[in-house]
Amino acid sequence: MQLAIQLIFAQVGAQVGIDEVLNNGAATSLSIADGWNQQWLNLLQNNTNTTTSLYGALTNLGIFFAVGTLLFFMIQFLRDLISYEYSRPISALIWPFVVVILLSNSGKGSILSNLTLGLRGLLNTVNQQVVVSADAGRMYQQALNMSIAEEVTGSFLRPCQSLTGEQQSQCFVQAADKVNVLLQKYRNTYGKKIWINRLQTKLDNIRYNKGFVSETSFNSLLGSTVQTSIKNFLVSLQYAFQNLIEATMLLIALLGPIAVGGSLLPVGGKPIFAWLTGFLSIGIAKISFNIIAVLTAAVIVNGPGQNTTADPDLMWFIIFLGILAPILSLLVAAAGGFAVFSGISNTASLVRERI
Questions:
Q1: H helices then E strands: how many in the chain?
Q2: How many CA atoms lie within 13 A of 225 on its CB side?
Q3: Which of 9, 48, 112, 291 is spaced 20 to 30 A from 182 at the CA atom?
């Protein structure tokens, strides 16, 4: 009997590591951004002057585009020179100088790559300030761990359902001992929170068979393996979205030389404006997601998290983080990017008319 119970918990413990669960719950987009820093430096700053590097090859391609489009630029320049005398053509001469300056390489990366790294650093600084100021009480971690703690508790208690009598009682005792390790780690991290005490009370009532836990609450605490798998998938989905944001921003940064090289085309909307808009839009999406996640987490921690009688089902929060928040942040980024592009284009037109 004792051996059978130990084998059950050995299997569950292999599937759910308490330290891993706690650390995953505490992960934020800040740590994800830090993991991408070295990749950004390797691609945009280190050895960018060699043709064997990715950014160096793309810079050469951008220079090729610039040389190719220079012919079209000169044709349009001569046409404007005949039609508008000197006012408009002279203002257009700034673009070849801009392209040459941005694509020139000083040995430690081009001007464009250094400006791109600086712009990313500015966006990350703003994102960090937003997260730190809005999540001063670590609301995001707490709300995520409120759901994770219940899943871990249910995973340890679930095997006890198939047992009866003394075997089930011993199973509950061993499960409670393992869950108490997790709850103590939460107390060390967040202090004495009501949601931790509420879960501790439920666990003690089950462990000591006090009969104070309703069947509905007990079944809700146990959950199911399907629900646990869905939650794990959705939590992984939100981390995948945050990594996708970083990968997309890096991809846009790498395409910068091509956008600059094509900016000599005699068209109204310069590719460099579209490139800059796309880069800023991804930054807006990143910041928007963090604001949405932190504010929603604050509602949970300050609401059901502070109510001793509440028994919240936090599945909606996991769905919100994994699916709805990424969609909403992308919509906000699209609207913000359109506004930025319109503002840049109008400013460029105004400057061209004034010069």
A1: 16, 0
A2: 5
A3: 291
